[in-house]
Each structure stands twice: as C-alpha cells, then as structure tokens.
Design brief:
With 406 residues, chain A is of the alpha/beta class. Chain A has 19 helices and 18 strands. In chain B, the strands form two sheets. Chain B has a two-stranded antiparallel ribbon with strand order 1-4. A two-stranded antiparallel ribbon of chain B has the order 2-3. In chain B, strand 2 and strand 3 form a beta hairpin. The chains are: A alpha/beta (406), B alpha+beta (153).
Chain lengths: 406, 153
C-alpha cells in the first residue's frame, strides 16, 4: 500500500506494482494521483547553478552562500513538504533571521487560522463519513480538486450512523458561481454571483431566523433553511471560492457557523489543496503563535501582511522556494519580483520557478521516493513510507546541509 | 446514447419480416439490446439505395457493440477516477463491506467496478444487476458520475 501525496486527502489505500523500476499497475488512485505517480519519470530536475549542471554539493554550497549573504531572505512554499522538512525550514528561517511564508497566505490562510485556533468547530473526515447527514460544498468543486473526496468521505460511502446509502441518509448542497461537476451530483444547488457570498450568508441567516430572505429564489431558500434546521450533523466544506469572495469579512462565515451550531451540530473542514498545507500552519502556530507570514529578523518573531510572500517578494533580497511553483501560481508582479532576486529552488520536478532559479536542488518525491509524515486536510496525521529507492536527498536533508554550510 | 427510434429511422421501415421479427421497430429494439445483428436485415445489406443508411447505422451501433454484456460503456478520456461509481454500486457494497462500502478501494474479487491507473474498469460484468435475461435497470453507477464518463447502451 502506498500513500498518494497528490492532494490533501492523502489516500492510503493505493496499490502500486513496480516492475524493473517502472510503474506496472496502480489501483484505487484517481486520475490526479495517477498523474502525480507517473510524474516520477518525467521532467526531473538536476542540480544547476545559473543553468549549468553542477554537483549536488556545489549547488548546496551556492544556496548556503546566497542565503548567508542576504540581509533579508525569504523562505517560501512548504505546502508540498513533510512535517519534518517544514520543521527544518522553520529552524533555518530562525537561524537566518529571515521571513517564512507558505502558500496558505495566498490561499485558505484566514479560514485555516480560524479552524486551528478553535474559532470555528471542525471534525475529521472519518466523522463526516460516519455521522454527517448534510454536506455543503461552498465555493469548492472536489470532483476536480480532490476527486475521491465524495467517494471516500463526504457523500457516497456508508458509515457507522449512515449505513443505508447516500440517497436516503445524506443531503448534499452545492453553493457555487457555476454548476460545477460536484454541483451536478448534489441534491441542492444554489448559484451565487462572484463576490455574492456575503449576501447569500445574510439570506441563510434570515431563513434560519424564520424571516423571508431578501436574496435569491425565496422558495428555494426557505427549503434550504428547512434542510439546515433538520440536520443532525452538518459539515461545510469551504473552498477558495468562499474565501476569496469574503476576503476580510470571514467573520460573516464564523457568525453563520455559530448560528447553525445554535440549531444543530455543524462542523467545517477547509478544502485544503496541497497535501501538507495544514501541517505547516499547525507547526507554525505551535512554534510561533502564527500560522504564516512570520519574520525572525533580529531574533524576534513578528507577523503581518508585510511578511506575506506578496510584500516580502518586494522587500527581500534572496528567496528559497521549496515544494511550490510561485512563478506559475502567483500574480505577475510577485512572480517578476521573485524572478529578479537570487532564487534557490528545491523541487523534484521542473517548473517555471526552477527554470528561473539561480540554484536548483533536486529532491526526492515524497510518498514515492521518500517517507515522512503530513497532516491531512482534516487535521489527521498520516505517516508514509517510500515505495521505491532513490539516491536523491529529501527536503529536510537538503535543508540540514544548507543550515550546516551556513 | 442512441435510442431505438433513432435506429429505426435508419432501417428500411418495410416490415418485411426477413429478420424473423414482425416489424422494423421490433428489430431496432433487438439491435439495441444486442439480440440481433445488423447483417440479419438483408434488404439493408443488399439494396444499394440503403447504402447511406447502412453506413450511418454502423456508426451509431459502434459504441453499443463495443459495450460490455451489461451495456456499460466507459469513456476513458472523461473519467476522473473519483470512484463514486465504485462506492455507490450496490453489488460492490454488498460484496465488499470493509472496502468499497466505506469508501476504500475494493478488497473483494467480486467487485464489478474498480479504479485502475486513474480510470474506472469493469471487471465482473456478470455480477451486475443488468446482466442476464432477468436484469434490473439499475443506474447507481451512472447517476453518481460527475463527468458522464460511464453510461449504459
């Protein structure tokens, strides 16, 4: 059995057959995970400095030199690394007095902070499978982002208290700007215009209070209120659609959750994308009291938007990117600033970031060539072992060598 | 998916009974259910005026002829490998209470649907409720497919 690190579901039931070093068979894996496993054999990185191939030792030495000479280095990425590598990264940032941030600061950070700090009630995905009778996909399309979400946990499987099948015992609701592949499968679908989630939340609050909603189809909204009121165990899966739509007004969502919990039991499981984003946020919270956007300058811990990747890409003078491809994913202005500074990329696979980096250090792919532990989207720690041998060092081994060289 | 009426429109519509059935409509239903072959309609094969219709009929019948004994057609290119069909299939659930019933990969050899290399595969069509003369028109797998990657002929 192998663990798939293709997304934050960390599926543990993957049957992998290898024959002469190649994948001969993969069972129980979704198309996304299948691509992730097959990627083992394509577009791998090599140690390079300014595009010239060098030895691993030379690349590590150059990376250490860049970080040592930098006055204010940025360490960014982390969501596709194990807890062990993330811990090594936080230690390195502390030693360098640098800024550390991860993909959550541009993603689900605000919502994750509320969940980790206990401002919003949460539960595990196994609880969802066993007890949930109402599941709400809000601004999320797990059929595409986490293909096995519905079949493994949220809708179709039978559980301890839900053993009669989804038709009888589960209600599913999709709230999205378009009728996504997930919305097509749900029993109820509510269309909201982009940025219209705050008004929708107000309307849900109205129907729960027994008032006539001022928004949307009144009959459908009242029906939604009835479903929400009758739920025994409801779970909301908020995606980036909701987080981006609410922006700084996430308190509206936590207020709605408080209201729903006054009626019945409602939990929230954020739809985390990368396989260990939650792990980094949890580690940072334990070590620094903040989930991301932290600076260790002058031995002090400071937190704020000025330490996010967006601001730090302008103020920092060197960057180490690990387990992420910010040049592809982040806005052009941020990507341009990052590309202009001395950039170190630690990545098993070629990306736009590795193409633009001054130093590239190849690493082993977790779940395939290296083991470790990660935290699933619902906070459950998953341990995994390598399934194939590799000479490539792990992220934590590379970071340890850089730290030693500094 | 093509229906009996669409197939009927491509037949001679003369009710000549040469295929052994009383009407062309009955023959169309037979073709759809794979009990009849295109070659059994001799006027369609032999008469040149039906050449275009025969060509079209062969085109529309191609996916039906490639389907399994239960009529299940899998469009590999559309499948996400989400496994919704595997978990929702009542036969899989009954045969595999500790595997596909609770959302995991099938552990039983009797599972009809399994996901391999990111795409669903039909392994034991004889176990399907749609197999054989006393078939039940179950659609648990197709109803749960987010991408319409599986359908019945």
């Amino acid at each position: 059995m192998a663990v798939c690190t293709g997304c934050s579901l960390l599926c543990e039931d993957i049957e992998l057959a290898l024959k002469s070093g190649a994948i001969a068979g993969l069972k129980n894996i979704c198309r996304k995970g299948s691509g992730h496993f097959h990627a083992l054999f394509t577009e791998r990185t090599k140690p390079t400095i300014d595009g010239q191939e060098v030895s691993l030792d030379q690349a590590v030495a150059e990376a250490a030199k860049i970080l040592k000479e930098a006055k204010s280095p940025l360490l960014y990425g982390w969501s596709n690394s194990t807890l062990e590598a993330q811990k090594a990264g936080i230690d390195l940032a502390r030693k360098l007095g640098g800024t550390i941030d991860d993909t959550s600061s541009f993603c689900q950070g605000r919502l994750m902070e509320m969940v980790l700090k206990g401002e919003i009630p949460t539960c595990t995905l196994d609880d969802v499978r066993n007890f949930a009778d109402v599941v709400i996909f809000w601004g999320a399309d797990p059929s595409n982002s986490h293909p096995r979400h519905l079949s493994r946990f949220s809708y179709y499987p039978r559980g301890e208290k839900r053993d009669k099948g989804y038709e009888e015992e589960r209600n599913s609701i999709a709230i999205d700007v378009r009728k996504s592949d997930t919305a097509r499968l749900c029993k109820y679908y509510f269309k909201v215009p982009p940025g219209g989630d705050a008004e929708f939340i107000a309307a849900v609050g109205d129907v729960l209070d027994g008032k006539v909603p001022k928004y949307g189809d009144k009959k459908k909204m009242i029906e939604l209120g009835t479903v929400l009121r009758k739920a025994e165990f409801g779970v909301v899966f908020p995606g980036l659609g909701l987080v981006y739509s609410l922006g700084e007004r996430m308190n509206l969502f936590s207020d709605l959750m408080a209201k729903l919990n006054g009626i019945s039991t409602y939990k929230v499981v954020p739809m985390v994308g990368h396989y260990n984003m939650r792990g980094f946020n949890q580690l940072m919270l334990d070590e620094t009291g903040f989930i991301n956007q932290v600076s260790f300058k002058d031995g002090k811990i400071s937190h704020g938007p000025e330490h996010s990747v967006v601001a730090a890409s302008k103020s920092c003078d060197a960057a180490l990117v690990i387990g992420s491809d910010p040049l592809s994913a982040l806005p052009f202005g941020v990507a341009k600033s990052l590309a202009r500074m001395p950039l170190i990329a630690i990545d098993p696979k070629r990306s736009l970031t590795t193409d633009a980096a001054r130093v590239v250090i190849p690493s082993a792919i977790y779940g395939l060539e290296a083991g470790g532990s990660a935290i699933r989207m619902d906070g459950v720690k998953v341990q995994f072992e390598p399934v194939t041998a590799s000479d490539l060092p792990t992220d934590e081994a590379i970071l340890a060598r850089i730290k030693e060289a500094i | 998916m093509v229906g009996a009426m669409e197939i009927y429109q491509l037949l001679p519509k003369t009710n000549c009974k040469k295929c052994g059935l009383p009407t062309c409509m009955a023959y169309a239903v037979g073709l759809l259910g794979k009990q009849k072959q295109i070659e059994e309609c001799t006027p369609l094969i032999e008469d040149k005026k039906y050449e275009q219709k025969l060509k079209k009929l062969r085109e529309v019948m191609a996916p039906i002829l490639s389907s399994s004994e239960t009529g299940l057609i899998i469009h590999d290119e559309k499948c996400f490998g989400c496994g919704n069909c595997v978990v929702a299939c009542p036969v899989n659930v009954a045969a595999d209470p500790t595997g596909s019933a609770i959302g995991l990969g099938p552990k039983s050899d009797k599972a009809i649907l399994v996901v391999e290399d990111g795409v669903v595969k039909c392994l034991n069509p004889k176990e399907c409720r749609r197999f054989g003369p006393n078939k039940i028109l179950c659609s648990a797998c197709t109803a749960t497919c987010p991408s319409k990657a599986i359908e019945f002929a």
